[in-house]
Amino acid sequence: MAPKKKEYSFDLRETVIKHFLNGDYEHDIGTKVIIPRNSVHYIIAKYKNTKCIGNIIARGQKSKTSVHADRVTQRKIKVDRRKSASTVKVEIESELGIIISEQTVRRRLHESGFMGRVARKKPYVDKLNRGKRIEVYILYTPWATTVGSTTCASGACSLTETLLDFEAGGSLPVGYGNFTWTGATILNGATYNPMSGYNVVTCSGSYVIYTFGTITMHKIPTGTTFSLNSFLATAAWFDNLNLTISGRLSSTVIYSTNIILQVFSITVVNLNWSGIDTMTLTTSGGTKNVNVTRGGKHVAIDNMCVTY
To answer: Where is the Transposase Tc1-like domain (predicted)?
Structure first.
């Protein structure tokens, strides 16, 4: 007898069962629906045993791993996402004493939402060429109107504030902005090394102030106070440079904060410190940016907004 090529449709089997329930004989049912009597017999026998016309959905193949083994597999991948299926297989077999395949490990991880990924291959760019690429980008990118535009606009002073833009030329004048300055040096950031934070932070004019230690600005005349509202800052050479700022009144610290600066990213330092007569700013920490040619814990500042 040749093997059955396909099953009869649900509608046909339902018709057979209806005739059977009406009391028709198997031979007569076969004649009415035009199928062999043996097929009619099998359909009726299955209905008697299962009380179902269609096929019963099977539960599928029994899982080769227990719930505990699945949890152990997931835990190993959560600890180390780079671990391969072959490594997990060996560890599972050693710890739990069961034999599983690499494909079973992958299947269990896929069911839990862990998918393998292969990193895209990128062309190798050595340190020298990486620096040259950034230098060309900086050279042909108008920082004041692109990278720095939003930040420079965010750091602009309001009509009620006084802008200290440090456009004083080669040196900081005595009493500039009605302050006594200690440790601050003026630099032409627009023409200085483009591979530095000096060039990045230059937003108004050409000049910025910098220090690699401490800047102190004290309000004059003595006994008067001011509000330090905001300023723009970048690290000149070191990424993750720590900038410690404190505001004092009569030598008593009433404000203090720490800011982390990067070389090629302007930070808007919003303080809004009122009623102080002295501001102290100190740099520390940081690591040299791989794309700069010099080093040092220097900070560059521009667009300082104060209120008297």
So the answer is: 74-135
